[in-house]
Amino acid sequence: MQSNLDQFKAGDAIAALTLAPISRTTLALYAGASGDHNPMHIDIDFARKAGLDDVFAHGMLSCGYVGRLVTDWAGPDRLRALSVRFTGITHVHDQPHLSGKVIERFEQDGETRLRVEVACANQKGEVKISGEAVVAVA
After folding, report:
1. What is the mean pLDDT of each run of 10 residues along the chain (138 residues)?
2. What is the DSSP letter of 51?
3. What range(s) does the MaoC-like domain occupy (predicted)?
4. Is the CA virtual torsion 20, 23, 25, 29 positive or negative?
């Protein structure tokens, strides 16, 4: 749902998003939808042979959640840029907690824009993705 972005200024938090824990079903469905069938994400035997305890989520799944956070808040038509940095592995059963904070209000290309610091963390507060989004106010 779009917000009235004209009210936002630096320091304001955007609506947070908490999702269901990552399940094996989530990983299988994402692999099918994305075409990314890397066995590190879906085959526990393969992951264990590689020295891991279990499979882990696709980085782009969490990145998609970050995009959802921003577009749920601002609307997809207002998104001007999104950049992320992967900072940790999202494990099976981690629960994604997404948050954002406006860090700048500025003018560019004839429109007012907001720069938003975004993050995807797990239930322990461990940040797995950090990044920045730019959205147009109107």
Report:
1. 82 97 96 95 96 96 97 96 97 97 97 98 98 96
2. T
3. 20-103
4. positive
